[in-house]
Design goal:
single chain; mainly alpha; three-stranded antiparallel beta sheet
Length: 138
C-alpha cells in the first residue's frame, strides 16, 4: 500500500505552504552569500588575465631584442608610431597564438602602455584598469 492509497479521495500528496516558503528562504540565503563571491572571482580572474598578458608582452619584448640585436630592435621600436604598430610590427611573432591587433590582445576594461624605449630593458608594460582609473601592478 502506497501513501497515495491511504489518502482520502480527491486529496493529493503535496508540500505545505510553510515547507515551500522555508525552501525558498534557504535558497535566498545561499544566493545572498554566494553572489558577491562569484563577482569577486570574476574580477580577480580578469585582473589575472591582464597581468598575464602584460607579462607576455614583456617576454615578447625580451625575445625580440635577443633575436634582432639591441640596436636594430631599438631602431625598429622607435620607428613604430604607436603601441599597435609596435605590437604588429615587432612583437606579434614572439607571442604564442597572438591576436591580430593590440586592442584585441588587451582584455576588456584594461589599457596597456608599451615602454617608449626598450634599451635598456628596465621599463615594463604598464596596465591600467579603465573602469576604476587605477593602475594594476604586477
Amino acid at each position: 500500500m502506497t501513501t497515495s492509497d491511504s489518502l482520502p479521495p480527491n486529496r493529493f500528496a503535496a508540500f505545505s505552504l510553510v515547507e515551500v516558503l522555508a525552501a525558498i528562504t534557504i535558497i535566498g540565503i545561499i544566493t545572498f552569500l554566494a553572489v558577491p563571491n562569484i563577482v569577486r572571482v570574476k574580477q580577480d580572474s580578469e585582473e589575472n588575465l591582464a597581468r598575464a598578458r602584460a607579462e607576455t608582452l614583456n617576454m615578447a619584448i625580451a625575445s625580440y631584442v635577443q633575436a634582432k640585436g639591441t640596436n636594430a630592435a631599438q631602431t625598429a621600436w622607435t620607428a613604430a608610431a604607436n603601441d599597435n604598430a609596435r605590437y604588429t610590427n615587432c612583437l606579434i611573432n614572439y607571442i604564442a597564438f597572438p591576436d591580430t591587433d593590440f586592442s584585441s590582445f588587451t582584455p576588456a576594461g584594461y589599457k596597456f602602455s608599451l615602454p617608449s624605449s626598450i634599451v635598456p630593458m628596465s621599463a615594463k608594460t604598464t596596465i591600467s584598469n579603465t573602469n576604476t582609473a587605477q593602475r594594476v601592478y604586477y
